[in-house]
Amino acid sequence: MAVVATGCAKATPSAPPPSSAAPQVAAQAQLAERFVTALREHKGDEADGMLCPSTTTPSRETTKELATEDAPFTLENNLASVADGKLLRAVVDMSPAGQPYRGFSALIDSSAAQPCVYSVGRRAQYQQEDLDAALAIATKLVDAINKEGDGKYDRCQAMTDAEVGNLGKYFADGKTGKVTARLPVSANDVGDGDGKSVPVDIEGTFGDAPVHDRATVNVGQHCIAAFAPVAAK
To answer: Distance (Å, rounded) from C-alpha 23 to C-alpha 38?
Structure first.
């Protein structure tokens, strides 16, 4: 899903652009090109050398996997600023002609003196069968909250203690909920990951209080992988 700059805002006295901004962005764009070229040419070690020292193991493993794939790596012209301008996101399309979208995004550290790739994550289109499976898994959780099931739900082992605590509010004091599960995405939407991690919104009331939480369902493992409140807008 490309984000393409369509114009240049004039500098104002309240927000003057730093003099090094253009060279820095150019350096990051060059890094993105070199990173994609290394993957396209199956040069995994070269791509790994462009990762930041702080890049985590999952991103390093994804980089190695991508370097083994035969796919049309197309870098989209969309170095979008994220994290208050500290990172730039480059999106790469790996979809053969006529096939569902799949690709990856790379976050480039824009605060380092020497630009480096901070993280790498896959992106893919959601498929209807995976959305249906995610809703079924989330419905078991909803039934447990509403006391309509056996009180059990499928929780992934990787769920953090904080996320378990977020869910614990529904089972700590004997109150009954009235919540439903809703998919905020549809088939052919592009999501982070391989399309097997599906967001599901849990909405309604618990006791007398309104609630709006988001569960991330791992369809591949058939369990709830993450759970957190949705911040009010």
So the answer is: 22
